[in-house]
Specification:
The structure is a single chain. Residues about 1-10 and about 10-40 have low confidence and may be disordered. The chain is about 30% helix and about 25% strand. About 40% of the residues are buried. The protein is built from seven helices and twelve strands. By secondary structure, it is of the alpha/beta class. The strands form three sheets. It has a six-stranded mixed beta sheet with strand order 8-9-10-5-11-12.
Length: about 280
């Protein structure tokens, strides 16, 4: 079950300004090019940098500004929680970070394959390749393909990459073992519990060895005990595989356990002291 936001206070840390958590580095464009895009330098340690991000939806004759001038940086190895009320734009922001959606203006820069790669300049094919190789996704709903087994669902991103079927399924089996489902590989999604389905989706997200794990309310559809087990698994794999993880959540107890927290509210982002978050 989902969790309501309990008395959220967007308390900024001592080094943060009014527009949020921008960790400043050189913003000067490098005279470097890769293909058709211009490459920007990245501050040492950064894997993602957001600059001046704005998202606007057209609603009738007026514009709905979801967020504006978001600027922040995500460092390699961080476990970052993004919190905020429903409708604040957290999921949309996550989609933009993972090249699933585009901003109205502003940019997201990624360190691979070249430092400072602007995601908005990727072609559709290049964006799909980027997502397959650099990003792992876990959603609130598992989105497993019901006609395939758990093993085949986990192996699917490798099939799409053209990996030999035997090798793909061997790697998928290894990841099912990592999430505690070594004996459930030949079961279809309808034969699995909600917690097992979410663990399969986590294995599928990580089977390609991505640099970044993006998780959108990964425990939102689970009961308290199962949610705790899934979050603990995400935390363990984050550390074991040195991931950079960005987790959208309404669960303040889970957000408190992340290394860093950002609050998205009223169209702006601000740094939150994790210890200031109230538990349900």
């Amino acid at each position: 079950m989902g969790h309501r936001m309990p008395h959220l206070r967007c308390t900024r840390g001592p080094e943060n300004n009014a527009v949020g958590a921008l960790k400043t580095g050189s913003l000067v464009e490098a005279n470097l090019h890769q293909g058709e895009w211009q490459v920007h330098p990245m501050e040492k340690g950064a894997i993602l940098r957001v600059e001046g991000l704005r998202k606007v939806y057209r609603s009738g004759n007026s514009d709905l500004v979801l967020f504006d001038n978001l600027s922040f940086q995500i460092d390699t190895g961080e476990m970052l929680a993004i919190v905020g009320q429903s409708g604040a734009g957290k999921s949309t922001l996550l989609h933009i970070l993972g090249a699933l959606d585009s901003a109205t203006s502003g940019e997201v820069y990624f360190q691979e394959p070249s430092p400072g790669l602007p995601l908005s300049r990727l072609s559709e094919q290049a964006a799909a390749e980027f997502r397959n190789r650099q990003i792992g996704y876990v959603w609130q709903f598992h989105y497993l393909l019901p006609e395939f087994t758990a093993l085949e669902n986990v192996a699917m991103p490798l099939y799409l990459r053209g990996v030999d079927r035997r090798k793909a399924e061997a790697e998928a089996a290894r990841w099912l073992a990592e999430v505690g489902l070594a004996e459930r590989g030949h079961h279809r999604s309808g034969e699995l519990s909600g917690g097992e389905q979410q663990r399969v989706s986590l294995a599928r997200a990580l089977v390609t060895s991505p640099k970044v794990l993006l998780a959108d309310e990964p425990t939102g559809d689970l009961d308290g005990r199962t949610a705790e087990a899934v979050f603990e698994l995400i935390s363990r794999l984050h550390s074991a595989y040195r991931l950079t993880s960005v987790i959208v959540t309404h669960n303040m107890a889970f957000a408190r356990r992340c290394s860093r927290v950002l609050c998205l509210a009223d169209g702006a982002v601000s740094e939150v002291i994790p210890e200031s978050l109230s538990s349900p």
